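Fold Annotation — chain and its backbone
Next Lines — sequence and tokenised fold

***
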Amino acid sequence: MNRIYGLYRLLSKAQSTTLIFIFFAIICFCGCGDTGGYSNSFLYPEDIRTVYVQMFDNQSFYRGIEYELTDALAKRIEAETPYKIISSPDHADTVISGKITTVGQATLSSERQTGRALEKELEVRAIVSWKNLKSGRLMVNNEAVAASASYSEWQNQSLDYASILAANNLARRIVELMESKW
């Protein structure tokens, strides 16, 4: 502390005032600038108003999950984005489409004596594309997305229950893909 005070006394009044001003300017402006951090800009592209959700293709052996995913995605887009779902691709600004590539099950825990599964997991994988029909630009180009849901037959939860949960989780991930890149 004595060194700083001694340096201050050596400098003239004008030099010390300038030095103090520069010091405070550095402190004030050190957090400014585009550093890729937080932003208060809009999360979704602003030039889009409507989205057409095309029925997902299903390449897995589990039937019906494509309906659950398409329905869950349409509802999530309506609820979590500023976009409106349109029933015709002719009047929509964008089209979102995809295909379910795999649906798989795994055992999370099993009973020690009998080996029966206590808890299972259903995982759904899909590839998604989102195309702007005005400009022809692919906003999401064949992105792989996966989601899972666990269920237990011991708690009266069926595979249908897990497929609905997994479809909702996958729809949430797809809506996250629709956000603007930072």
Remarks:
- The chain has one domain: 50-177.
- The longest strand covers residues 94-110.
- The beta strands are 50-53, 57-58, 84-85, 94-110, 117-132, 138-151.
- The chain has a mean pLDDT of 85.
